[in-house]
Amino acid sequence: MxxxxxxxxxxxxxxxxxxxxxxxxxxxxxxxxxxxxxxRTKKKAEEVNEKFRLNATVYDxxxxxxxxENIDFVDIITDVDSHEMFTIMAAEKGLDVVCQKPMAAxxxxxDNMVATCKNAGVKFFIHxxxxxxxxxxxxxxxxxxxxxxxxxxxxxxxxxxxPVFDNQSFLAMLDRFILMDIGSHVLDICRFxxxxxxxxxxxxQTVNPVIRGEDVxxxxxKTTSGMHCYAEMSYASILEKEAFPQTLALIEGEKGSLHLxxxxxxxxxxxxxxIVSEIINPKMYNWLDPAYAVVHSSIVDCNxxxxxxxxxxxxxxxxxxxxxxxxxxxKSYESAAAAKKITI
Length: 344
Ligand SMILES: NC(=O)c1ccc[n+]([C@@H]2O[C@H](COP(=O)([O-])OP(=O)(O)OC[C@H]3O[C@@H](n4cnc5c(N)ncnc54)[C@H](O)[C@@H]3O)[C@@H](O)[C@H]2O)c1
Description:
Bound molecules: nicotinamide-adenine-dinucleotide
CATH class of the largest domain: Alpha Beta
Shape: globular
Number of strands: 15
Structural class: alpha/beta
Strand order of the largest sheet: 14-13-12-11-7-10-9-8-15
Number of helices: 11
Strand content: 25-35%
Oligomer: single chain
Helix content: 25-40%
Distance between the termini: 33 Å
CATH superfamily of the largest domain: Dihydrodipicolinate Reductase, domain 2
Number of domains: 2
């Protein structure tokens, strides 16, 4: 059903680090009004309310917010462990739900979230923004244009020595780290570029001695059409050129290759050599951190797509779609634990 209201009324659930970018991105597009904010630490919600001059009502009790506020959807930006609970409570009230990646702490919870929203007749979207990065969209366009013919193999890389644990020390305490955190993005990019996968084999490692979870994961996948895709991610890679937070890719096809390399350079290579070399810069906004521009900028495009979905149109990153990404993450853990190939 189409929703033609001039502005959809939104409550932001969780006002920590990432909410600051998500709210700024909502404010870039017409059609959404943030009318309520919730955080268990009320002061954080009050600070965000003031910072963005939202004039929203601030809550430290979610049930009260759901009871009092006249809203169209909630945007959940809390820790992964609470995503299921907040989604289900909103769905039971008949509200549409937008939820940050990773969808849930495990596959069972993710299944439950998708099923509950479906049964309640509410729309459910995952805010998965990496596939909306400008260089990734351009790469997909070039792939679909057929310049390199049918692709037979690809490498998608997110490898860096960025000291991620310095800023977010809690990441060092997680039993499962890089596949959940970055794998959610990288494996989703692989699905976006190449379609669905039929099998995978994964190896993980913990290189940094002071962390609990894995900081290196290598996933070798086969698409349903037989193409090979190698997704590599690492926070232990000391390389000639630090790429953080870029996702790089090399796609090989029967007529040539597409190379998305450092600093957003996209090269089209055929037997004649490099026939195109283009720099795909992300769109800049005054609120984004220039060091993270490619990531922050993609939030706006992701939100535009989700708003289209909330209004009853098409959206790429529905809960049902993202469940396939969550499945890849968990099948990767299963493969790494059993040291065997997993059929999807
Ligand atoms: N798309 C991206 O690129 C990206 C980047 C960073 C974070 N994220 C996602 O955003 C989400 C939040 O991450 P963050 O970095 O902002 O974390 P954060 O810890 O900085 O903020 C989370 C906020 O939620 C509140 N909160 C958590 N659990 C709660 C609960 N049970 N009840 C009430 N309030 C609660 C906390 O008080 C905090 O203010 C995560 O799902 C994370 O994966 C996405």
